[in-house]
Structures are given as C-alpha cells and as structure tokens.
Design a protein that fits this description.
This protein is α/β, with parallel strands linked by helices. The protein is built from 16 helices and 33 strands. Strands 8-7-6-3-2-1-22 form a 7-stranded mixed beta sheet. A 7-stranded mixed beta sheet has the order 9-10-11-12-13-20-21, with no helix packed on it. The relative contact order is 0.11.
Length: 645
C-alpha cells in the first residue's frame, strides 16, 4: 500500500492511495494561496489599482516583463487574471485513478483540473450536500473571474520570481499554476459524481468497500472507511466535534483501523471558535451603533449560516435589528434554499424543526421579514433600491481578489466608521488587504474554524486506537505562528506508530495482505473430508479450479475433461524419533546415532551408510553420498512416520 501527497496545503488535501490494485484519490482540494500574489479583479475600473506603478527587478530590462508586476507599498503584485495551484500531476497519471472520494465541498475545488482533459474514466463519490454546495462554490468562482476579463495574461514574471521581493519570491511552484476552469468543465466534472448516503456501503470493483461516515464539519461532510474482509483504512479529513448545524461526527465507524490518515485540522490552533463568534457579534454591534457598515468576506455556504443566526439575535439585543443584512453572491438564492431542504444531513435539533411548521435555519424567517436580503451582485435589479446604511454585507470572495467584495472595499475603505471582519481562516488578512492599502476602514480578525484542534485530535486518536497514524509532517511540529506552544502538535501514542509525510512524497504504509476471502462452490465443499490435527482444528485438501473475476476469488468444480490425481496426500505433524529408529531397524539400519543440536534440531548419523538425517520443526534433510537408492529408502521411512490428510 502506498500513499502519494499531491497538495502542499493540508487544509486543501489531495492524496493518492494504492491498495489491492485500486488507485484511489482522497479529496482534490485546490490551494488558493497563490491568489494573494495577484491584483484584485474589479468590474468597475479602479483608479487606485490602475495607477499603481510598474515594478521591475533592478538588474533586468526585459521588455516582455514590462507592466506585468505592480507595486503598492512594500508589496509587488501580478497584474493578470488570478492563477491557482492545482494538485501535483507529475507523480501519477490521473487517467489511472479508479475512484475519487470527496470529504466535503471545500475539498473538491480542483475536481475539474483532475477529471477533465486528463483521460480520467473513474467514478467520483460524494454525499448529496457535498455535490450541491460544491457546485455552488465552483460556479461562484468561475462567474466572479469571468465577469472581469483581462486583456492579457502575465507569464514572464515567473522567470524572474527569485528576484522579486517577499512574499512573491517565496511563491510555491508558480510555473505549475493554472488559470481557472470554465463552466463546461465544471458541469462535466460534476456529472461524474455518484451520490452516496452516510453509512452506505459502496463496492469498488470487488476489491474493497468504501463507507462515508459523518464528520460533523459541514452539511454532508464525511470521513471515509476503506475496508476489505481483513483490513481497515480510515481517511479522516475536515472533522468537528463541536455542536453546530451539521449532523454530529460518527466516532464508532472509525475505531480500530489498521491505518488512519488524518488531515485538514484547524487553521487557527490558538483561537476558540465560540470566543471568535462572541468577538464578531460585539464588533458588529458596536460598528452599527456608531453608524458604520460591516463587511464580512465569506464563502456562500458553511459557517455563514451560523453567522446569520447568531448576528440576528445579537443585533436584536443591541437594538440595531433595524439595520439590514445583505447576502451577495451569484449563488446566494440557491445556497439559502438548499440549506433548508437537506434535513437528513442536519443535527437532531435542526431536523426536528422540519417536522413542525418551522424552518431548520432562522435565515428563512429573516428573509421573509426582510431582515436578510439576498442578491446575485450589487448591480442586480433591486439592490440599489433596497440598499440602506448602516448595514451588514456578506459577500465573496474571502481572498478579496474578485467578487463583489472588491467594490465594497472601494466604497467603504476610506471611512474609519466602517469595519471589515475576517471570519474565513483560509487567507492571511494582512496579505488579503495589501493591494488596497492605505485604508481607513477598521479591521477585525475573527477567524472561525470549527475543524478539530490538536487537543481534540489527540484525544480522538487515543479513542480510535489505530495501529498506524499517518499525518502531514507540519502537524508534528508547533505552528509557525506559535513556535513555543509544543502542545499544538500530533503527539506520539502508545498504541499507534506515527508516519509523517509532506508534499511530493510517496510513502509505503505498513499494511501487508495476509489473508483473503474466497468463495467455494457447493459441489466442491461437499467433497471435503476434514482431518483433525489438533483438538478443535481440522485440515483438508481442496481440489478445484480457482477463478478470479472482478477481484472476487472463487473455487469451482473442475470440469469433466480434466481429472486430477485423486491419490495425492499431504504429510503433517512432527517426527517421533523412537518410531523412526524402529522403522530404520526394520529396514536393516541399526547403527543410528542420535544427536541434539538444540533449538528443536536433531541430527541422526548413519555411520555404516555414511549418511546424515537432519530433523527440524518444519523440514527434514537427507544427506548421503550420491546413493540414490539409500536416499529414497530413508525418505520413505520418514514419510511412513508422518501423518497424512
């Protein structure tokens, strides 16, 4: 069994697992850190961004590089449509992938890169919410980028990246970055997904079985159990033990695995989600009371549902419930609609509301009462009419590189009464704001990440008791943001051996196939004659034709035109020395000398015949000087002293 790591970001995982001649991809996350190196895309031309000065390395005069890089303060940005860092495609041919298992909608953003134009012919498995919300995320990002086309693409800067200032000079593999896919590829990749339910057993070419178990992170998120009759592998990605709106995490299905692959832990190890939510509510309340607006860059699904619920209640308490909330996204309407109809994937508290005249989420009531208004874009019909200040706006993209958030920063960025609140943990907020500086708007960092933290992860590992634990190498070291907090690591566990891995590595996992399952034809089974070799243990030979089809082994009756030797017998047991010497005497061999060499090894010397017989637990050796008749005689005596079946 081998594991390939194709992603440099453990929170946007992509792995290849090869097992029993099956090649599986575990998630296909898309690293978007590359976006922070590009200038924002704006569908309304920004004088500030247009007037940024060009930047060139001091020792370079290449005319092809002219205009590709822009400078703002101490940062340099690429003036081009943004590019993304797809999974590594050098280690494995994607056309050889048989199955892709998707854990949650945030871990499928690279799916079109993997399945389209690569010769991929396999099957993708995901839950219904993962498919539906993943579709919204994919569509949103394509719409955002396509609505702001650029006339040219910058390419030459990648040859001079080592001469650029920090952080551009530390960009990860920029020559492997790709432009975003189109909607045709999005739809084609999504059409390959086969929906599965929690605890549904899915057969993979007869070789193994995969089962999704609730991971508790978001609607439809799953951990995957990959099993055979005798082996169990668990892939744990993006899980949460906190009580929010999704169905709780299923621990039982993950226990006692031979191998546990753990990734996608929290990106905010020193922050508490509940504390951050409390700070967020206070910041929003104070800003609105002061007559300012609040801008919250977000994804169109996920934690945003909890924010609607918490903020609406807090705004009521603080007496600012008359301030409207706006949800602006090309997929806002679909997101709100889907969240209220996927009842089976919700927590029991939310599920119970479905069976009474109530909505699972309060945002449905907020929409009906006009306290939450949703629009596709800020230029959509009705937005300018309904828009009033002060207000709270939720919109994308959290990277601040495209989407309606770019226009709101232009609109509100120079007013210190306004506030931008960062709740998504995927992007460094200082780097996200860098191309817009200088700004007067207040900034609050309240990153809310409900994924497992290191304390929870270590406790979970202790409870699950895997034989082997496989984790990204960075999880075995304290985070860069807190190098002295040595407790923020995946520690050693008595019952588990820990194997770290990193980007581009191929590691061998210590799982050897020791047993396999075979089915036997009833006609073959009826001819079995068991022989008891020990109390409670019987053996028998089986004569039949072994057939292997779709990784299923079966022993079938041999056809009539083939007649095997029915008299074949197999010896077993240990040799009785006294009986053996008596048999030798009957054959006229009386000069046997027995010598024990220790360790259950006995040597019998036949001095007159110049021969030697060495007896061990599992073998017998007859040594004589080219006397084939004597060797045959001695062999027959040995066989007579052994039991047969």
């Amino acid at each position: 069994m081998k594991l390939y790591c194709l992603s440099n970001d453990p929170n946007k995982p992509c792995h290849i697992l090869t097992f029993r001649e099956i090649t599986m991809m575990l998630d296909c996350g898309l690293s978007m850190q590359s976006l922070l190196n590009f200038l924002p895309l704006s569908f309304v031309p920004s004088n500030k961004l247009l007037n940024l000065p060009n930047w060139m390395p001091s020792d370079t005069t290449d005319p092809d590089l002219e205009g590709e890089l822009k400078e703002n303060g101490d940062r340099v940005f690429v003036d081009s449509p943004p590019e993304f860092c797809p999974p590594l495609d050098k280690l494995i041919d994607f056309s050889q992938v048989d199955v892709i298992l998707i854990s949650n909608y945030l871990c499928m953003m690279a799916l079109p890169f993997v399945t389209e134009g690569t010769g991929f012919k396999g099957t993708v498995y995901a839950t219904e919410p993962t498919l539906q919300f993943g579709r919204l995320l994919l569509e949103e990002i394509v719409i955002y980028i396509e609505q702001c086309p650029k006339s040219s693409f910058a390419t030459q800067w990648k040859n001079f990246v080592h001469k650029c200032p920090y952080p551009l000079n530390e960009a990860f593999k920029p020559k492997s970055w790709k432009q975003i896919y189109n909607m045709k590829n999005v739809n084609a990749s999504l059409s390959r997904i086969q929906m599965v339910g929690y605890n549904e057993k899915v057969d993979v070419y007869g070789a193994l079985q995969v089962i999704p178990a609730s991971s508790g992170l978001c609607l439809g998120s799953a951990n995957w159990v990959i099993s055979t009759e005798h082996e169990k592998i668990v892939y744990l990605s993006g899980s949460s033990t906190l009580t929010t709106h999704p169905r709780p995490m299923d621990h039982h299905a993950l226990k006692n695995a031979d191998v546990l692959i753990m990734t996608d832990l929290t990106q905010t190890p020193i922050s508490n989600p509940d504390s951050m939510l409390g700070v967020l509510c206070v910041v929003v309340g104070l800003t609105l009371r002061g007559g300012g607006n609040v801008l919250i860059p977000c994804y169109p699904t996920g934690v945003v549902y909890d924010l609607f619920e918490c903020l609406s209640g807090k705004m009521q308490e603080l007496g600012v419930s008359n301030c409207p909330m706006f949800f602006v996204s090309p997929v806002a309407d679909m997101s709100l609609a889907y969240s209220n109809i996927l009842a089976e994937w919700l927590s029991s508290v939310k599920q119970n509301k479905v069976y009474v005249p109530d909505e699972p989420f309060p945002h449905a009531l907020l929409v009906k009462s006009n306290k939450l208004k949703h629009f596709k874009h800020i230029f959509s019909d009705g937005f300018s009419t309904d828009f009033q200040e002060p207000c709270v706006v939720f919109c994308g993209h959290p990277s601040l590189r495209f989407g309606d958030v770019v226009q709101f920063i232009e609109l509100w960025g120079n007013n210190p009464r306004n506030c931008i609140v960062f709740t998504e943990p995927d992007f460094d907020y200082i780097e996200a704001l860098a191309p817009y500086q200088p700004l007067q708007i207040k900034v609050a960092h309240c990153a809310i990440d409900t994924s497992l933290n290191f304390t929870q992860a270590n406790k979970l590992i202790k409870d699950l008791k895997p034989k082997t634990l496989v984790v990204p190498e960075c999880y075995t070291q304290p985070p860069v943001s807190a190098p002295n907090l040595t407790e923020l690591v995946i520690g050693s566990h008595v019952e588990s051996s820990v194997i770290p891995y990193k980007w581009g590595e191929v590691i061998n996992l210590p799982l050897k196939r020791k047993q396999g399952q075979a089915f036997m034809d009833t006609n073959v089974a009826q001819k079995i004659v068991p022989v008891e070799v020990k109390p409670g243990i019987s053996l028998s030979t089986v004569t039949g034709a072994l057939n292997v089809k779709d990784n299923v082994h079966s022993v079938q009756e041999i056809s009539g035109d083939f007649v095997p030797n029915q008299l074949v017998k197999y010896e077993w047991g240990s040799l009785n020395i006294t009986e053996f010497l008596q048999k030798l005497s009957q054959e006229g061999v009386n000069d046997a000398k027995v010598e024990s060499l220790g360790g259950n090894v006995i040597v019998i010397h036949l001095q007159d015949e110049d021969a030697l017989i060495q007896l061990e637990d599992n073998s017998t050796h007859v040594v004589c000087n080219a006397d084939e008749n004597l060797r045959t005689k001695l062999r027959n005596v040995v066989m007579q002293c052994l039991k047969k079946f």
